[in-house]
Write a structure and sequence with these properties.
By secondary structure, this protein is an all-alpha fold. It has helices at residues 2-9, 19-42, 57-87, 104-133, 136-149, 156-176, 180-196. It has one domain (2-196).
Length: 199
């Protein structure tokens, strides 16, 4: 039972993310973003070439996009939860695999992480893959699967629940070529996750 819980729901013991780990994570993400900027600069491009930029309408777009992703996420949650209960009726969901205390560092990380993930794993990755293959569906699937894969530390079920959400966001990017609203959606989710866990 514990083995199946580990596979599907992540590590059973909460890991506290302390100031040192947050500092390292922030440094790593800032370094990666600086490297992305350098790569684009060397190619004669800017961040706007991969859809980065904000305009007032992005707030409304992000709210609509957030509602859509939430509906998809909840639908996938109930589908997977029902399926898992059919397989293993003794399901005991362990706690989330991490806990982040609210602090200036954790808030900074929650605000930085959406830029890191969305600019690199979605905007740049999809732009380059689309240029290489000429096929949007490959870019969408690859981005969604890759982004889900590095959330496996939270458990297989959670990574699977993220998959259609990431696919929807990737489809939006493919159609609109704008990453700003997606960054805002990610920001809402990260800030909510940080603040809600302490209520």
């Amino acid at each position: 039972m514990l083995a199946s819980a580990l596979v599907f729901a992540g590590h059973p013991y909460p890991k506290i993310v302390d100031s040192y780990k947050l500092s390292v994570a922030i440094t790593n993400e800032l370094t990666a973003l600086a490297f992305l900027y350098y790569i684009l600069y060397r190619q004669g491009r800017s961040l706007s070439a991969i859809g980065f930029g904000f305009e007032p309408q992005d707030i409304l777009r992000s709210i609509g996009l957030w509602v859509s992703t939430y509906v998809v996420y909840v639908g996938m949650y109930y589908l997977l939860y029902a399926t898992y209960l059919l397989i293993d009726r003794t399901l005991v969901m362990p706690p989330m695999p991490f806990s982040i205390p609210v602090s200036a560092l954790s808030l900074a990380f929650a605000c930085l992480n959406p830029f890191f993930e969305e600019l690199i794993v979605r905007a740049f990755f999809m732009t380059e893959l689309l240029a290489l293959t000429g096929r949007g569906w490959i870019a969408v699937i690859a981005s969604a699967v890759f982004q889900s894969a590095y959330h496996l530390y939270q458990g297989g079920l959670i990574a699977l629940m993220y998959l259609p959400v990431f696919a929807l966001l990737s489809l939006y990017y493919l159609r609109k070529k704008r990453i700003g609203p997606i960054i805002l959606v990610h920001l809402y989710v990260d800030l909510a996750a940080l603040l809600v866990q302490h209520n």
